[in-house]
Amino acid sequence: MDTMHLDTASKVLAYLPSRGTSSDPLYMQLASALRVMVERGELRGGEALPSERSLMKATGYSRVTVRSAVEDLFRDGLIYKRPGAGSYVSPLVDQPLSVLIGFSADMQRRGARASSRLLEKSVGAPRPDEMVKLGLSSGETVVRLSRVRLADDTALAIERAVVPSGAVDPDTIAGSLYDALRASGNMPVRALQRLRAAIADRTEAELLGISTGSPVLHIERHAFLANGRAIEVTRSSYRGDRYDFIAELKLES
């Protein structure tokens, strides 16, 4: 048995309740202990989870108990599986709030493979609030693009973008909306973002593969061209367990 895996597995004992002090099933106690290790950085993103055998040896739990704990972490997106190579801790994505970047480009620079599951791509009339935010008249139309965004086949976000139909041909939108806007000469250069903590409703939970009531970040992005014209309104729901937004703060002089 791999000594490193056994050493890591043995650390879980510090986070398990004493025998008989918890009414939770053993698999839930083990899953909770592993979560704490991830939160404290003792198991880092991309690091292999201790094998079932090493966890069994360290805790004395049965294979069924250990496997149930691992499956619980997998369902919550805390780990991912590599066929034939075991389970690994899912990396937490940090996105700086000061950088205007699309999902595809952000994943590419992290070495992850970005993909999408299309929910809607259509042209139609804007809603009243979209007319105001995009500066459109009643006779103009918008392109609607709704997708589940994935990194290495794991759902991270739901994006619902709206842009003026004159800004981009819907047929040119393949992976990245920003690539299509750039090709048409309508790439935004600045944006305002509003973030709000929320809990996933049933639809969000199903699309993101998480439990109803799990934490999510609701984000609205309002992007502009260099001439000040509004070009994009995107409303997104990001998984709270996989996405952090980082802001650098400076003392005002």
Determine the strand fraction and express it as a percent band: 25-35%
How far do the termini sit from each other?
A: 58 Å
Q: Radius of gyration, rounded?
A: 22 Å
CATH architecture grouping of the largest domain: 3-Layer(aba) Sandwich
- The CATH topology of the largest domain: Chorismate lyase
GO molecular function: DNA binding; DNA-binding transcription factor activity
Protein name: GntR family transcriptional regulator
Keywords: DNA-binding, Transcription, Transcription regulation
Domain HTH gntR-type: 24-92
Overall description:
- The structure is a single chain.
- The chain is α+β, with helices and mostly antiparallel strands and 253 residues long.
- The chain is elongated, with a radius of gyration of 22 Å.
- The protein contains eight helices and ten strands.
- It has two domains: 3-89, Arc Repressor Mutant, subunit A (Orthogonal Bundle), CATH 1.10.10; 93-246, Chorismate lyase-like (Chorismate lyase, 3-Layer(aba) Sandwich).
- Keywords: DNA-binding, Transcription, Transcription regulation.
- One of its GO terms (biological process) is negative regulation of DNA-templated transcription.
- One of its GO terms (molecular function) is DNA-binding transcription factor activity.
- It comes from Devosia pacifica.
